[in-house]
Structure formats: structure tokens, C-alpha cells
């Protein structure tokens, strides 16, 4: 130690290792830093220079890398042994000694003059780099400082303005006010920020935000004033544009502070709520839009008069510097809600009109078909009357019998049309059983192979491992036949028709995959354009000749398939053909099912003695027909026109009543209600329902509940007697 010497006591010289540790110290360390030289040995230089800055900026604190080849000078703060800190100038250099490279740091206290010079340099740098114009003037108003920002703002260079009166910047009508501000400032007053108009070198006027403060010397005497100014003309124009846009918006805008109080409102808000701006500024926003805990779309605004309106409110934050405001846009949705309600009403009216159109089309089709059939029946009935009104001969009887046969044939046709209508509406009685579709495909092929036409090639293919489905086999066969006949009509010049059935799996999101049977009926016919395809399932909608009685095939197919829990879809390409796809759910039950409503065992069993049957129907002629049919077959018959009369007849009858035959659809009391009431005092009474519309006794799938027997109208005598015998043969 002691190898390092100090030129004087105001300077401490330290020797440093390359990693920044003190290896030697001169005696000046005692005077300047308060350390004995040996106390500093091995200490890191940070103990003396707490923030060495660029002194240790080299990689790994390599001082030689930081210093380079020349000496370096730093203005830093140094710390004495007692912890006090003082400003210092640290000069560092390196030299090569016998033992290697040596780093030397000389620390000297920064003098007051140095500090003042440094402060002046700092202030000068700040003035030069400021984005605001900084102008200083002596007590006479002559410019003493003019920074680059002032040059940019006012157009004068510093050389042009130094020594000139600051008044060159003031327009004539602002001279007096500016001079008054200057006089107050050099009297010791500090003027807060103000807005002023200044004149540019080119003569244009500028709007500036400015402030002015007094300048004092070391003794506190005011020697002039300094001011800052900034062009706010662009800001004012932007603010003016913003206010204009805000005022022109057709929606309410409310500015809300972090405390929930209203900071500003635009004119539309005043109009919406009926308040003037001055009435709501500072009020809680809940005064206008109460908190309801409801969703945003359920909010309501409250007007000054207390009335309410539905409001849509959107919130967004706005950073205004000192705080974050919430901008709330408010829209009165009264008109929108009314418009939506009107649109809904118009949609409902349109849907009703479309339904009426469909009903009209359906009614027209029904009337067309049944009027034709009634005309045929009436004509043949007239022929019978003519043939039997004169002398009865063998020839006239034969002709009458022929006409009667034609009448019955026409009735069968009418019954089939009624059945198709019920199938379309899913009101026909279905007798679903566990069925192998391949049998139906084979039966349809056998039926069509020699009847569909020589110019049409028909092929069928049923997969050998088809799972069974639960369906009414007769309805399924009729559906496939109808689709095949439609395909035939679409191929007037011949073509190919194929019917296939294959197993498949249907996947529905959120549900387990289900096994299905897919049936395809494909033709190479004319196809359907989109406008026809869209209406393909409508009843009686057809592009064929109206006299062909067409238009129910696809509608009936749709009714049958949906009743079986399946789906039916059509794909068609005009000029290339049509494919109808039927999807039916597979049945995974192992044991075969019997269809509900099937004939029961023991049908046709011999009856013991005469039976009494109560017949109830609100149609007088039909009551009489049934009475005659039953009477001719040896039954005693009681008749009633409605449920109430039937109850009276049953109570008044002393003997047994073996069977109730009742219509289902009757005024005041239905057939099912009548059966329940009769069984209250005639326990176990068998019931045979008859109806042309079976909906009240059908399940959701279109079948009958177990034990329910239905005879569909119209029926013939043998059908009636067979049904009666079947019901009576079941033990009570």
C-alpha cells in the first residue's frame, strides 16, 4: 500500500483491478473520503462510487474494455466513509506497469463553479430539446432566450429575435393584455396557463397555450420573465370537430367518471331524457339508467317526467389522462321493438296465408276427387232406379246388379282416397310389427315387374344383413309402390328404376349413433326443378294432368315414414332423375312384436244365444244401416243418437248388453267418454269403435292401444260382423 500518490488533498487516487476492486489508495482518500488507505484494499469500487455508471459498463466489469485506449471522465456521486454523498469528477486511465495493466481512478470533488456550469449546460440542453417554445426576456421585454421550438412555432430564428422586443409576437388588439401580464410577472406574480393569440412571422395568427413566470438572480432580484407556449390551434380544431360529431350523433352519449357521476352528455341525451345538460352533470348515472340487475337488452331509461323507455346501452372506456371515463351510448329501442313486433305480425300473417293456400289446395283436391266419385255413384244409382221402376225382367236385374257393383267399386275408391288423406295427416291406423324390409322389397318387385312397363328396367337389391324395423308392412309396401309409380310417370320414354335397402348408422351430435335402414328409390326420369322439389310433399300438388287424380303419393309417403319415426328426403336433378331416400330406425328388440289392433285369437267362434248390442252414432242413416246389418245377422240391437241417449237406454234396459258399438267423434260426448261412463255401471262391457277419423284413439306413433278395436268407415256387412264376432269371442 502507499504506492499511489495524490497531487493534493482535494483528490483521492485509487488503483483498481480489472474486475473493479480497489488494490491501492493514496493519502487523499483520508481527506476526501474519510477512509484510511488500507481500509479500502480489496473493496469493490461501488463502496466509494455507489452508481459507477459507464465506469463498469464493459462485459464482466472489464474496466479496460470500458476505458479503451484513452482516459475517460465521468461526473458521478461518491460516498464517504460516514455515508455522506457528494458530487465528483472521476477521471480514469490505464497504464502498463511491471506487474501488468493498471487502472487508476482520480476522484475530485465537483466545485460550485463546476456544478453551476453543469446546471447551466443541463438547463440549456433542456431548453434546446423542449418541444414547447421557450422565450425569456429582460425587464424591458427584450428577448434573451429563443429556443429551436420557438423558431419552429413562430418562424423567427434566434438571431432574428435575440435583443428584439417580445411584442413583435402580439397582434395589435392583444398588446395591452400581454403587457399587463408581463408587468404582473416581473412584479413577482406567477401566471397560470392561459390561451392567447400570437402572430407568426408570415403574419398568420396562432392560438397558443402559454404560461409566464418571473426570473430571479442569485440575490432574489427579478431580472426578467420566461414563458412557455404551445400551438393548440390544431387541438382546438380537433376538439371542435369532436364536439360537432358528438352533438350530431343520433344516439345518446353519456360520459361517466370513475365515481359513477355524469361528466358530460350530448344533445341527443338531452332529447332522450328531457333534461338539460346542466341538470344532470354531477348526478349519478343511475338517475337516467337505473340498475336493475337485468341483462343489457332489458335496461330502461327514465325520463325527467318519470316515463320509461327500453334502452340499449353499450359501454367503452376512454383514457383522458387524469382518469378513465366510461362512455355510455344509449339508444331508445322503442321503434325497433315495434318494428320487430310488426315484422313478426307480418310473418305470422304470411304463414297464415300460406297455410290457407295449402288448405285451399287440399280442399280443392279433395273436392275434385270426391265430386267425381259422387257423380259416378249418383249416375249409377239413377240407372238402378230407372231399371227397377218399370217391369222387372232378368235383363233389368242384371243391369241393376252391374250398376250396384260399380257403385260399390266407386265407394272403394273413395275409401282409398280417404285413407290416403288420413295417412298424409298421420291419422290412419297403423299396425306396426317387427318387419324384415327385404320381404317388402321382394313383394314390390313381384308386383311391378310385369306391370310397370316394358320400356322401364326395374332392379332391386336388399342387403342380406338388414336389421328389422317396426313398421306397418302394408303401408310401407303402398309407399314404395307409390314412389315407383311416380318414377314410372317421370320416365315417359322409358328408363331405369332401382329400389335398394341397406343398413347404415345415423350420427347426431350429442347422442349415441343409431342403427338405421336406408331405402333408396332412384329413377332416370325427367327430374324436378327446385321450385317443384320444394313443394313435392304438399298434398295434391302435381305437375301432371289434374284428371289423373295424382298428387298424394309423396304426401302419403311422408306421413307413413314420419309416423314410423323415420325421415324421407328427395334429391333431384332436372334431366337426370330423382332419388327418394327413406331412413327408418332399426329395432333392437330380440323378440318379435304383435301389432296392436290385430285380430285376436278365437275370431269367428260360435256365439251362444242371441246377443244384445248398443249402437251409437250421430248420423241417423248410418245408425239404421248398422242396425239392419246386425239384425240380419241375428243380433238384438239398441240404437242411440248420442252419448247421453245411450246412457239412458243402457240404464233403462233390463237385460244384458253384450257389446257397445260407437262412433268416436260425436257432439257433446265422444265415444271414448261414453265407453268409460257405461263401464261404471256395466263393468267389463266390450267396445267396438267405428270411425272415419281415428285420431282420438291413436297413440303418438299412429297405432292403437292394446285392447282397443277400431272398425274404419266405410265398411261392409261382412267386415262389421267379423269385427263383432272377434270382440265377442274374447272372454270378459
UniProtKB/TrEMBL annotation:
The lineage of its organism: Bacteria, Bacillati, Actinomycetota, Actinomycetes, Micromonosporales. Transmembrane segments: none annotated. SUPFAM superfamilies: ATPase domain of HSP90 chaperone/DNA topoisomerase II/histidine kinase, CheY-like, PYP-like sensor domain (PAS domain). Residues 365-588 form the Histidine kinase domain. PROSITE patterns: HIS_KIN, PAC, PAS, RESPONSE_REGULATORY. This is histidine kinase. Residues 13-51, 119-189, 238-282 form the PAS domain. The keyword Kinase applies. It comes from Catenuloplanes atrovinosus. Keywords: ATP-binding, Kinase, Nucleotide-binding, Phosphoprotein, Transferase, Two-component regulatory system. It is an enzyme of class 2 (transferase). GO terms for biological process: phosphorelay signal transduction system; regulation of DNA-templated transcription. CDD domains: PAS. GO terms for molecular function: ATP binding; protein histidine kinase activity. Residues 190-244 form the PAC domain.
Amino acid at each position: 500500500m502507499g504506492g499511489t500518490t495524490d497531487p493534493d488533498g482535494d483528490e483521492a487516487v485509487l488503483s483498481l483491478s480489472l474486475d473493479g476492486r480497489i488494490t491501492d489508495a493514496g493519502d487523499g482518500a483520508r481527506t476526501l473520503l474519510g477512509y484510511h488507505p488500507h481500509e479500502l484494499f480489496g473493496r469493490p469500487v461501488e463502496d466509494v462510487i455507489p452508481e459507477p455508471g459507464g465506469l463498469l459498463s464493459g462485459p464482466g466489469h472489464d474496466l479496460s474494455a470500458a476505458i479503451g485506449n484513452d482516459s475517460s471522465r465521468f461526473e458521478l456521486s461518491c460516498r464517504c466513509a460516514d455515508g455522506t454523498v457528494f458530487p465528483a469528477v472521476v477521471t480514469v486511465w490505464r497504464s502498463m506497469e511491471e506487474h501488468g495493466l493498471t487502472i487508476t481512478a482520480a476522484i475530485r470533488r465537483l466545485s460550485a463553479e463546476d456544478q453551476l456550469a453543469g446546471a447551466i449546460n443541463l438547463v440549456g440542453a433542456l431548453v434546446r430539446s423542449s418541444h414547447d417554445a421557450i422565450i425569456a426576456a429582460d425587464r424591458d421585454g427584450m428577448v434573451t432566450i429563443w429556443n429551436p421550438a420557438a423558431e419552429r412555432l413562430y418562424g423567427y430564428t434566434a438571431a432574428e429575435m435575440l435583443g428584439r422586443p417580445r411584442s413583435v409576437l402580439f397582434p395589435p388588439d392583444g398588446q395591452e393584455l400581454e403587457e399587463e401580464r408581463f408587468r404582473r410577472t416581473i412584479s413577482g406574480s406567477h401566471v397560470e396557463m392561459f390561451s392567447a393569440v400570437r402572430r407568426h412571422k408570415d403574419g398568420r395568427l396562432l392560438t397558443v397555450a402559454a404560461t409566464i413566470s418571473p426570473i430571479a438572480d442569485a440575490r432574489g432580484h427579478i431580472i426578467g420573465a420566461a414563458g412557455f407556449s404551445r400551438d393548440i390551434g390544431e387541438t382546438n380544431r380537433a376538439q371542435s370537430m369532436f364536439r360537432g360529431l358528438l352533438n350530431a350523433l343520433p344516439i345518446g352519449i353519456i360520459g361517466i367518471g370513475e365515481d359513477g357521476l355524469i361528466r358530460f352528455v350530448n344533445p341527443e341525451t338531452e332529447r332522450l331524457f328531457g333534461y338539460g345538460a346542466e341538470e344532470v352533470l354531477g348526478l349519478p348515472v343511475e338517475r337516467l339508467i337505473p340498475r336493475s340487475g337485468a341483462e343489457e337488452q332489458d335496461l330502461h331509461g327514465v325520463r325527467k317526467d318519470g316515463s320509461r323507455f327500453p334502452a340499449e346501452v353499450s359501454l367503452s372506456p376512454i383514457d383522458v389522462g387524469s382518469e378513465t371515463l366510461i362512455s355510455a351510448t344509449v339508444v331508445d329501442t322503442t321503434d325497433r321493438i315495434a318494428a320487430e313486433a310488426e315484422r313478426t305480425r307480418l310473418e305470422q300473417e304470411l304463414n297464415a296465408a300460406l297455410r290457407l293456400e295449402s288448405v285451399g289446395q287440399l280442399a280443392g283436391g279433395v273436392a275434385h276427387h270426391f265430386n267425381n266419385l259422387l257423380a259416378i255413384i249418383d249416375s249409377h244409382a239413377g240407372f238402378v232406379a230407372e231399371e227397377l221402376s218399370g217391369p222387372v225382367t232378368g235383363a233389368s236385374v242384371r243391369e241393376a246388379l252391374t250398376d250396384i257393383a260399380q257403385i260399390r267399386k266407386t265407394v272403394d275408391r273413395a275409401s282409398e282416397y280417404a285413407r290416403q288423406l288420413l295417412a298424409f295427416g298421420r291419422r290412419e291406423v297403423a299396425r306396426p310389427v317387427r318387419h324384415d324390409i327385404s320381404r317388402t322389397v321382394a313383394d314390390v318387385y313381384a308386383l311391378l315387374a310385369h306391370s310397370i312397363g316394358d320400356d322401364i328396367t326395374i332392379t332391386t337389391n336388399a342387403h342380406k344383413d338388414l336389421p328389422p324395423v317396426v313398421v306397418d308392412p302394408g303401408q310401407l309396401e303402398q309407399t314404395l309402390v307409390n314412389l315407383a309409380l311416380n318414377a314410372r310417370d317421370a320416365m315417359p320414354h322409358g328408363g331405369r328404376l332401382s329400389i335398394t335397402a341397406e343398413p347404415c348408422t345415423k350420427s347426431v351430435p350429442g347422442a349415441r349413433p343409431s342403427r338405421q335402414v336406408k331405402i333408396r328409390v332412384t329413377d332416370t326420369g325427367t327430374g324436378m326443378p327446385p321450385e317443384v322439389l320444394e313443394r313435392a310433399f304438399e298434398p295434391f300438388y302435381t305437375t301432371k294432368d289434374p284428371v289423373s287424380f295424382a298428387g298424394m303419393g309423396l304426401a302419403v309417403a311422408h306421413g307413413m315414414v314420419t309416423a314410423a319415426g323415420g325421415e324421407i328426403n328427395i334429391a333431384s336433378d332436372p334431366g337426370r332423375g330423382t332419388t327418394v331416400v327413406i331412413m327408418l330406425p332399426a329395432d333392437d328388440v330380440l323378440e318379435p312384436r304383435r301389432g296392436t289392433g290385430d285380430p285376436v285369437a278365437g275370431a269367428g267362434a260360435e256365439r251362444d244365444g242371441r246377443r244384445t248390442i248398443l249402437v251409437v252414432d250421430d248420423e241417423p242413416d248410418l245408425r239404421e244401416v248398422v242396425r239392419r246389418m246386425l239384425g240380419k245377422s241375428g243380433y238384438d240391437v239398441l240404437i242411440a243418437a248420442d252419448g247421453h241417449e245411450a246412457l239412458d237406454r243402457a240404464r233403462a234396459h233390463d237385460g244384458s248388453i253384450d257389446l257397445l258399438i260407437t262412433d268416436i267423434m260425436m257432439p257433446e260426448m265422444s265415444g271414448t267418454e261414453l265407453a268409460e261412463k257405461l263401464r261404471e255401471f256395466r263393468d267389463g262391457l266390450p267396445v267396438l269403435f267405428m270411425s272415419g277419423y281415428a285420431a282420438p284413439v291413436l297413440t303418438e306413433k299412429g297405432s292403437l292401444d292394446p285392447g282397443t278395436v277400431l272398425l274404419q268407415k266405410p265398411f261392409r256387412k261382412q267386415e262389421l260382423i267379423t269385427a263383432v264376432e272377434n270382440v265377442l269371442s274374447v272372454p270378459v
